Amino acid sequence: LKSLYAINSFEIPGFSGNSFLQFNSLQSKIRFSVDIELITYSENGLILYNGQSFSGKGDWIALLLKNGFVEFKYNLGSGKFILRSKKKINLNQTFHLTAKRYKQDGILIVSGEKPVRGKAKGLMKNLDLNDSLYIGYHPALNHKIKRNIGLDLGFKGCIFNLTFDKKKYNL
Q1: What is the pLDDT at residue 49?
Q2: Do 92 and 24 meet the contact criterion of CB atoms below 8 Å apart?
Q3: Which among 16, 22, 31, 27 has a CA at the least distance from the CA of 3?
Q4: 118: closest CA among 106, 109, 127, 126?
Q5: SS3 call for 59
Q6: DSSP 67
Q7: CA-angle at 100, arms to 94 and 106, nearest 5°
Q8: CB count, 10 Å around CB of 30?
Q9: Pairwise CA distance, residues 132 & 128, whole Å
Q10: Each residue's pLDDT tens digit, 76-95
Q11: Which one of 11, 35, 80, 164 counts the least CB within 10 Å of its CB?
């Protein structure tokens, strides 16, 4: 990942609900993993989104908070797939989450919980992502993207650590 824009250095990025970081698209067609350590001040918000197109059409992958639960969602072209944490997260407390995908199989692990596993339906196994990766918010949270993820709010909180496919990124 490379940031598309130069940013002043800061210690811990804070997100206000409509602020975001934009990176080049994820390059993982078959395999994906992300580890994030964060704190949230709201039960609802988009943590990350990467799509095939800026408009929300095509394949996409997202991590978000909805009603206090962590959701890992993706669409490989055969329909939306959702993994949801078993317990609500605690607001104003640091937690760690890991989301992984290999072909159709997904796994979501939230601090101290047993992993949630599942398999997307259909024959598609590749994730085709051409648009930028957005952390914290998507600047075009249009009708299609809202329908994809089931949410129209950005993340409110701080992200301490971010690792994609075993490569740690200094935010």
Answers
A1: 93
A2: no
A3: 22
A4: 106
A5: coil
A6: T
A7: 120
A8: 10
A9: 12
A10: 988 899 999 999 999 999 99
A11: 11
**What does the pLDDT average to over 10-21?**
81
Helix (H), strand (E) counts: the chain: 1, 13
| 80-84: strand order across its sheet | 21-23, 133-135, 45-51, 60-66, 69-75, 80-84
Mean pLDDT of 100-104: 95
**CA gap 37, 25 in Å, rounded:** 21
Half-sphere exposure of 42 (CA within 13 A, CB side): 20
SS (H, E, C) 105-118: EEEEEECCCCCEEE
Predicted structure pTM score: 0.88
pLDDT of 144 > 90? The answer is no
Residues written for the chain: 171
| pLDDT computed for residue 88 by the predictor | 96
